[in-house]
Write a structure and sequence with these properties.
The chain has one domain: Pnp Oxidase, Chain A, CATH 2.30.110. It is built from 4 helices and 11 strands, in the order ββββαβααβββαβββ. It has helices at about 60-65, 80-85, 95-100, 130-135, and strands at about 20-25, 30-35, 40-45, 50, 70-75, 105, 115, 120-130, 135-145, 155-160, 165. The strands form 3 sheets. Strands 2-1-5-8-9-4-3 form a 7-stranded antiparallel sheet. It has a two-stranded antiparallel ribbon with strand order 6-7.
Length: about 180
């Protein structure tokens, strides 16, 4: 099979790191929601997550000011709301109200959980060394929440240019990792 050249500007569509998440931050007027797919696990204990947030966004300003956020993991059932959050600015609208999402108080941080998401991770910023250059924050997960009623979450994964993939079948293979 002959392979063909692939455009460098589309490489990100091949290395999609995980599900689209909704990052919430606390704000003076109202909390904000940002759709994000540029994140990665960095460490298991304590759980550390790296994420990229552009320095022109409201979420960047709010996260820099508070050093706290919640990573909310939605499923395909609210995909249109997730995309709506990604296509609008929290500087202009209250995304909780605009997209019919429910803020719930967190236990360890000031940013709210999103009730409609099947999992929520309360986080604090622990490393800002690469923020100025790359917008890359390192977050420590302080508290995790999951809806036990959701047995096989169908998360959405951004493939670029309005294209998404939905997580599907779970397979089990022998592994030494737990």
């Amino acid at each position: 099979m002959a392979k063909k050249s692939f455009p460098l500007s589309k490489v990100y569509t091949l290395l999609e790191p995980g599900p689209v998440v909704l990052l919430t931050t606390a704000g003076d007027q109202h909390p904000n929601i940002m759709a994000m797919s540029w994140h990665t696990m960095l460490e298991f204990t304590p759980p550390l997550v790296g994420c990229v947030i552009g320095d022109r966004s409201l979420s960047f300003r709010l996260l820099t000011a508070s050093n706290e956020c919640v990573i909310n993991i939605p499923t395909v059932e609210i995909a249109e709301k997730v995309v709506g959050c990604g296509n609008t600015s929290g500087a202009k609208i209250d995304k909780f109200t605009a997209f019919g999402l429910t803020p719930k108080p967190a236990k360890k941080v000031g940013a709210p959980l999103i009730a409609e998401c099947y999992a929520n991770l309360e986080c604090r910023v622990v490393d800002t060394e690469m923020v100025a250059r790359y917008g890359f924050f390192v977050l420590e997960v302080l508290k995790g929440w999951i809806d036990p009623a959701v047995q096989e979450p169908r998360t959405i994964h951004h493939r670029g240019c309005g294209s998404f993939m939905v997580a599907g079948e779970t397979i089990r293979l022998k592994s030494k990792m737990q």
